[in-house]
Write a structure and sequence with these properties.
The structure holds 2 protein chains of 2 kinds. Chain A is mostly helical. Chain A is built from 11 helices and 2 strands; from the N terminus they run H-H-E-E-H-H-H-H-H-H-H-H-H. Chain A folds into 3 domains: about 240 residues, Arp2/3 complex 21 kDa subunit ARPC3 (Orthogonal Bundle), CATH 1.10.1760.20; about 30 residues, no CATH class; about 35 residues. In chain A, helix 3 crosses helix 7 and helix 6 packs across helix 7. Chain B is mostly helical. Chain B has 12 helices and 2 strands; from the N terminus they run ααααααββαααααα. In chain B, helix 8 packs antiparallel against helix 9. Chain B is flat, with a radius of gyration of 24 Å. Classes of the chains: A mainly alpha, B mainly alpha.
Chain lengths: ~325, ~270
């Protein structure tokens, strides 16, 4: 579910980064108001827990394969939605920097897809409703299953939308959707089972941990309205971003225009037209199309050759330096 | 098991790389962070059919690796781990795209161009992110985030998570080793142990968080994190970012390969 930079256009990435920043800022405010400072080390260590837990392979009965924990819902249950969201955000930043898993430009998308829906939709509106009055293992299971499936479905739908809007790949919306959604139902079910198992275990052996987590934040009267306001603002931001997308005509929509109108001159779709025409006036030295392709290929080879040459020379120089040093 | 040990080793290795000394390591962390983000954004701003124009951007990772004297193998290994996903998403492009182009008499789907563009972009972006961590280190990146006015709760949480990944991963490795000794020839954790296994881990985590908190309090923790001395942006930092921005702008605005190519073809063919 982690999106890579290469599939994202800067516009989509930027819009989602703005949305994520808004939610994160709001969460930080809430965490500052509602939580005792004791929870900050807990959030940090819980983030590390998710990393560690992702290394455990749970064998899935009857399939011979194994799955692992994603953790968004579990974080929300343990730390509350705000702490959960912030913890998810720091996990994803570490994954992007340390493993290159999910890009920096796509960071906003990833935090939103993996953190927002589980912490701010599935947890308060589904999970909490289930275990509000009576808590039993069966209820925890049902709540976890439904909320993790719903959270992941929304997340994977976002992935599809963001990818298609960015227009970097040819996957048609429908095909991509038909591919992503069923897989994430399966993942959601497994995630739900594991989450329920962990929560039920903790409720049996150390109930005070869950009670503390549940009482730590007051999600009842105040926050619901605020969440809806945040949502509305987000809708505006995203709507604004999309209309900008439509007007400045970058990759995604350009592609659909290209498909429907069949005009070949959008072939070199650079995104920003001013710079494109600038480049065209530079390359117009060679009006002949064949010659232009030729010079493109020659130039490409020379460029890569130059980069490689820089590398080789530097390497050779270093070896000489080391040799000299070892002689001394 | 070996996977866990490996990733732990990799993490520590990244930390070691970040502690080295080189002109790139000396650059102000904030400058490096911003340059990396600008680089990735510029690379991603190219359209789906631009391959040639992406090539000059390889100069950035190559120069950084050379100047910072980082070993190439571990970074290449990381990139290779990421690539299958990118290939999985992009590989359908040649099949889905009906438009074709002709190279050397062979008709090829234009999807190969878009696939190539996705591949090169991901290569550049992943390398840039890994190089940022390998030349800067997580604590300095966190310091840079503080300079950018990112709230201290988030930065503190980021650092604590990073610090405790290795601790908890070692814990998991111990638990898994104990489990596998008692459950030989079994792939993964059996369903009957899902709850107790991960539940135990989470309880240990909570207890550790308590101890960590007490230890922090005993050392005077008041909710602030001390990032050490605040570094100043000096001349070499300014030269660093100005040079890169000029290069990125030039490579974004002008089709450098075609310009170079037309100069060469102009000399030889006209």
């Amino acid at each position: 579910m982690h999106m890579a930079d290469a599939l994202i256009s800067p516009l989509v990435g930027g819009t989602m980064m703005a949305a994520t920043t808004a939610v994160a800022a709001y969460s930080i405010k809430k965490v500052q108001n509602d939580m005792d400072e004791k929870k900050i080390p807990l959030m940090g260590v819980m983030g590390a827990f998710i990393f560690a837990a992702q290394m455990i392979n749970f064998s899935i009965p009857g399939t011979g394969s194994s799955g692992h924990l994603g953790g968004g819902l579990l974080l929300a249950i343990m730390l509350g939605p705000y702490g959960g969201f912030l913890t998810m955000a720091s996990i994803l930043l570490i994954q992007a920097l340390l493993f290159g898993d999910g890009g920096l430009l796509a960071y906003g998308c990833n935090v939103f897809n993996l953190g927002f829906y589980t912490c701010f939709i599935a947890y308060p509106f589904i999970y909490k409703k289930f275990v509000k009055k009576t808590v039993s293992t069966g209820r925890i299971l049902a709540a976890s299953l439904i909320s993790s499936v719903v959270g992941l479905q929304m997340g994977s739908l976002s992935v599809v939308l963001e990818t298609v809007l960015s227009g970097k790949t040819d996957l048609p919306f429908k095909t991509f959707l038909m591919f992503m959604q069923p897989i994430h139902i399966a993942i959601g079910i497994i995630e739900g089972f594991i989450t329920a198992a962990v929560v039920a275990f903790i409720r049996n052996s150390r109930p005070e941990i869950l009670e503390r987590a549940a009482s730590g934040e007051r999600l009842g009267a105040v926050s619901l309205k605020k969440i809806l306001i945040v949502f509305f603002v987000l809708a505006l931001i995203i709507g604004g971003g999309l209309s900008w997308l439509a007007s400045s005509n970058p990759d995604g929509l350009e592609w659909s225009i290209f498909k429907t109108s069949g005009k070949p001159e959008i072939e070199a779709s650079g995104g920003i037209y001013d710079t494109m025409s600038n480049v065209q006036s530079k390359t117009a030295l060679l009006p002949d199309y064949e010659l232009k392709t030729l010079s493109g290929i020659v130039g490409g080879i020379v460029t890569i050759g130059f980069v490689a040459l820089v590398g080789f020379i530097a390497n050779a120089l270093r070896r000489r330096k080391i040799n000299l040093k070892s002689r001394i | 098991m070996s996977g866990i040990v490996n990733s732990l080793y990799n993490m520590k290795h990244m930390d070691d790389l970040a502690r080295r000394e080189s002109p790139i390591h000396d650059i102000h962390p904030l400058i490096k962070l911003i340059t990396t983000v600008v680089f990735i954004t510029v690379v991603m701003s190219f359209g789906r059919y631009d391959i040639g124009r992406l090539l000059p951007f390889f100069l950035y990772p190559v120069i950084i690796v050379i100047v910072s004297d980082l070993p190439k193998a571990p970074i290449l290994k990381r990139i290779i781990i990421i690539e299958p996903f990118i290939i999985g998403v992009g590989i359908l492009n040649p099949l889905l795209e009906s438009e074709t182009f002709i190279v050397g008499g062979i008709e090829l789907s234009k999807g190969w161009i878009t696939f190539g563009s996705i591949f090169i972009k991901s290569l550049l972006a992943v390398t840039a992110a890994l190089l940022l961590l390998a030349t800067t280190g997580m604590d300095k990146i966190a310091g840079a985030l503080r300079t950018l006015r990112v709230p201290k709760i988030f930065v503190l949480q980021l650092l604590l998570t990073y610090r405790y990944i290795s601790v908890l991963t070692e814990e998991v490795a111990r638990m898994l080793r104990a489990y596998s000794i008692r459950a030989p020839q079994q792939k993964g954790i059996h369903r009957s142990a899902w709850a107790s296994f991960s539940g135990q881990l989470i309880i240990r985590t909570f207890d550790r968080a308590q101890r960590v908190y007490h230890a922090m309090c005993a050392r005077g923790f008041t909710g602030d994190f001390n990032f050490g001395s605040v570094l100043k942006v000096n001349l070499k930092d300014n030269i660093y970012w100005v040079c890169w921005i000029i290069f990125f702008a030039a490579a974004r605005l002008f089709d450098l390969p075609v310009l170079i190519g037309s100069m060469i073809t102009g000399v030889f063919f006209v």
